[in-house]
Design a protein that fits this description.
single chain, mainly alpha, 0% strand
């Protein structure tokens, strides 16, 4: 289960980067903001999983 969450974290971060870059390329501020939001969400999910790993040991 934890592996799935780590993968989801990386996928969200990657999708966010793509959206942010695409929004920047075409001048769409909303798309850029969505991309940054997805990256933050992915970062938070990843941090949560790291904390769970530390507490498990």
């Amino acid at each position: 289960m934890a592996g799935d969450e780590k993968v989801k974290s990386k996928v969200e971060q990657a999708k966010g980067k793509v959206k942010e870059k695409a929004g920047s390329a075409v001048g769409n501020e909303r798309l850029e903001a969505e991309g940054r939001g997805e990256q933050v969400k992915g970062d938070a999910r990843g941090a949560k999983e790291k904390i769970k790993d530390v507490l498990k040991d």
